[in-house]
Amino acid sequence: LVETLAEVREVWRQAQRFGAKIARCVSHGNAWSVYIHDPEGNQVEVYAHTPWYVPQPHMDLLDLSKSDAEIYRETEATCRKDPAFCTREEWVRRTAARLGS
Predict the structure, then answer these.
(1) Are 28 and 3 in contact (CB under 8 A)?
(2) 61 in Cβ contact with 24 (< 8 Å)
(3) N- to C-terminal Cα distance for the chain?
(4) What is the pLDDT of residues 34-90, one digit of tens each?
(5) 89: helix, strand or coil
(6) What is the pTM of this model?
(7) DSSP per-residue codes, 31-57
(8) What 8-state DSSP symbol labels residue 88?
(9) Which residues make beta-bridge pairs with 44?
(10) Rounded to an integer, what distance in angstroms lies between the CA atom of residue 98 and that of residue 82?
């Protein structure tokens, strides 16, 4: 887990620079992820939370060569199509209430 989309992108760039095999870059709606194979072939996920929530599983291809603004816009637009869409903040509140926290 990293803090920002920019950090996910930097991992993606560094992986390319060092010749690591990139399995895929995806948006899960609630997270942006890059999946990379380590030198032994294990798959590693590096991800950052988005400001939104959608039920899982959810997966759209992610083009990390696009700007942050484009990725934010595209991710939000896709997520808003899901009837269960809400902000991450709202999802945290609802979940805490369900758990009695």
Answers:
(1) no
(2) yes
(3) 24
(4) 999 988 999 999 999 999 999 999 999 999 999 999 999 999 999 999 999 999 999
(5) helix
(6) 0.92
(7) EEEEEEE-TTS-EEEEEEE-SEE-PSS
(8) H
(9) 36
(10) 21
